[in-house]
Design brief:
Radius of gyration: 25 Å
Distance between the termini: 41 Å
CATH class of the largest domain: Mainly Alpha
Pfam family, one: ABM
Helix content: 40-55%
Number of strands: 4
Number of domains: 2
Keywords: Heme, Iron, Metal-binding, Transport
Bound molecules: protoporphyrin IX containing FE
Strand order of the largest sheet: 2-3-1-4
Oligomer: single chain
CATH topology of the largest domain: Globin-like
Protein name: Group II truncated hemoglobin
Structural class: alpha+beta
Order of helices and strands: EHEEHHEHHHHHHH
């Protein structure tokens, strides 16, 4: 079980007469700077109804309802925020906090990294090429001296799952804690980690994974994160990790170019 999220979404619905909408938008453009500056605000968006121009909905995600009420509302940001929007308070039709339910997710407009890479076969090709290189490598071969025959296949399932594919590693082997625990006691050095990073990129080229900047930067970001975690958990002072979900790696700031 992971802890329930504390974030809350405040919806404020306005009905603004057409002739006032321009100054309403201008006032909110100025007021928004206070939301942007608030450490209690995760994001905000003012949307206008397409069918009925008089309807607006402001959505603000707060770190928690309490942070909104006791934090933002008592901060020095609130008085100037309120001063901008006070003329429209009477036009509010609803102003309430909502908590997310488990019914949420993303659609398929943006392909997962898994799909973009070429699915399960691509990750199998990747780890086959990778472990061939690892076993021929002066720094890494000793670490993988007792490599089990199924290891490459397991790592392929893990990578596929992290990049948005089926949860086959979790279902057949175990989740994040299981994978992390595989590295206990290995005492991986920085030089070995860096070699791992280099070889998996060579293997990605050899296995024909996409070479576009967006895919490769997201791929490498995970490899950096994962190898640094592996080093940490392989060290002498590593404690078993707290229960964590399998990371779901996405595209980050650069979504795929679909021209
Ligand atoms: C993104 C980085 C990494 C990922 C995704 C990863 C993934 C995995 C997975 C999924 C396993 C378990 C395989 C199984 O269930 O059979 C594993 C085991 C192992 N990993 Fe990693 N690993 C990473 C980094 C590293 C690094 C940097 C090293 C060493 C240089 C390393 C060395 C090993 C070894 C030796 C095992 C086998 C342990 C055993 O079964 O006794 N890993 N790794």
């Amino acid at each position: 079980m992971t802890a329930a999220p504390t974030t809350t979404v405040e919806y404020i619905r306005y009905r603004i007469p057409e002739e006032k909408s321009e100054e309403f938008l201008a006032a909110y453009t100025r007021a928004a700077g206070r939301l942007a500056a608030s450490p209690h605000c995760l994001d905000y968006e003012l949307a206008r109804c397409e069918e009925d121009f008089e309807h607006f909905i402001l959505r603000i995600t707060w770190t928690s309802t309490e942070d909104h009420l006791q934090g933002f509302r008592t901060s020095e940001l609130f008085p100037p925020f309120l001063a901008e929007i006070r003329p429209y308070v009477a036009a509010i039709e609803e102003m309430r906090h909502y908590k997310a339910t488990p019914v949420r997710g993303t659609g398929s407009a943006v392909p997962t990294l898994y799909r973009w890479a070429g699915g399960a076969e691509a990750f199998a090709r990747l780890t086959d090429a990778f472990y061939t290189k690892v076993l021929a490598d002066d720094l890494l071969a000793p670490v993988f001296a007792n490599l089990a025959p199924e290891h490459a296949g397991h790592v392929a399932l893990w990578l596929a799952e992290v990049f948005g594919g089926p949860d086959a590693y979790t279902a057949t082997q175990g989740g994040h804690d299981h994978m992390v625990a595989k590295h206990f006691g290995l005492a991986i050095t920085e030089a070995q980690r860096r070699r791992w990073v280099n070889l998996i990129q060579d293997a990605a080229d050899e296995a024909g994974l996409p070479t576009d900047p967006e895919f490769r930067s997201a791929f490498l970001a995970y490899v950096e994160w994962g190898t640094r975690l592996a080093v940490h958990f392989s060290g002498p002072d590593a404690k078993p990790p707290t229960e964590q979900p399998v990371p779901m790696w996405g595209w980050g700031a650069a979504p795929p170019y679909q021209g």
